[in-house]
Design goal:
mainly beta; 3 helices; 32 strands; about 35% strand
Length: about 325
């Protein structure tokens, strides 16, 4: 079993303890402090510290409940003491965190309770409208619409976060060259991840998509790489439509998605030319024992035999 797939199956056990994780969060706000590293003074709110900070500053936030919304318009590092117990809770109006500066890093928080407005405003736990940001090691849940909404932005890294119980886990629109990796995206009402309208050349790798309605949808977006992910126990696995073509999907695992694993009318590349994906409903054989199925795995929704969508090299075993 490869290192990447070993990682996937080790981390899947975390999903089964969602209720335990959520139950451990401490909503007490006593004793909370916010400091700007290397500068004198403390703050009672994170937004006060952001206003007093300068580009390049690091803001350190102690455990506690911070009932506020943030606008980050400076290049800062925002670091919470503990992702389970350092909680930013919005007032159910607008975004909990809105980022319009480049090179912002956010880690170590629970982020919840954004507003309820859907498209086109898309109230979100974190709304990114800038480039080269890193969002890592956060719990992002109970936001009505999106965990993270990335709009017209590039080169952002979303890694090692836990997304749970929203309409969309991650939503990209007009956004390119972003890296979405090693996240757990579970129990979202509509989509684990949704790429829409010219969100091209993004990389989606080593994530777990579990118990969502759709693991993911790619709409009107091309040349994305979707590799080494686990799509497990979703209603639908991965769906492509409306010009979502020329994407590469390989070395993923599709298990126990109740209606179907993959569907798409546009033509995509379901292997890398040597290896494809593992499908738990593949019925083909492997006569030469090379670990690759003898016949292609057909993707639901192909138009005709000349334009068939197929994984030409389906994996016989998880390896």
């Amino acid at each position: 079993m490869s290192k990447n797939f070993f990682f996937i199956f080790i981390i899947i056990s975390i999903i089964t303890s969602i209720s335990i994780i959520c139950g451990c969060i401490n909503d007490e706000s006593t004793g909370k402090t916010v400091i700007i590293k290397g500068k004198d003074g403390t703050f009672l709110t994170i937004m006060e510290a952001i206003k007093e900070s300068s580009n390049g500053d690091t803001i350190l936030v102690s455990e506690g409940l911070y009932s506020e919304t943030l606008i980050i318009d400076k290049t800062i590092l925002l670091i919470g003491e503990n992702s389970d117990d350092t909680i930013i809770s919005g007032d159910e109006t607008g975004d909990v965190i809105y980022i319009n500066a480049d090179y912002v890093n956010i880690s170590g928080f629970t982020i919840k309770n954004s507003g309820k407005i859907d498209y086109p405003n898309v109230d979100s736990g974190i709304h990114i409208n800038s480039d080269n940001n890193i969002i890592s090691d956060n719990n992002i849940f109970s936001n009505d619409n999106c965990g993270i909404y990335i709009y017209s932005s590039s080169n952002n890294t979303i890694t090692n976060n836990y997304f749970y119980h929203m309409k969309y886990g991650i939503y990209l629109e007009y956004s390119t060259r972003n890296n979405i990796s090693s996240n757990i995206i579970s129990s979202n009402i509509e989509y684990g991840i949704y790429l829409s309208y010219l969100s091209n050349n993004n990389t989606i790798s080593d994530n777990i998509f579990s118990d969502n309605k759709y693991g993911g949808q790619i709409k009107g977006s091309q040349e994305n790489e979707i590799i080494r992910n686990l799509f497990r126990n979703n209603k639908m696995g991965l769906y492509f439509c409306c010009g979502g073509s020329n994407n590469i999907i390989s070395h993923n695992i599709f298990i126990n998605n109740s209606e179907w694993h993959a569907k798409g009318y546009p033509i995509n590349k379901w292997d890398d030319g040597k290896s494809g994906n593992y499908w738990d409903d593949y019925n083909g054989t492997d006569s030469d024992g090379d670990g690759i199925g003898d016949i292609p795995y057909e993707i639901i929704g192909y138009i005709n035999q000349e334009d068939i969508n197929a994984d030409r090299y389906p994996l016989i075993e998880i390896s």
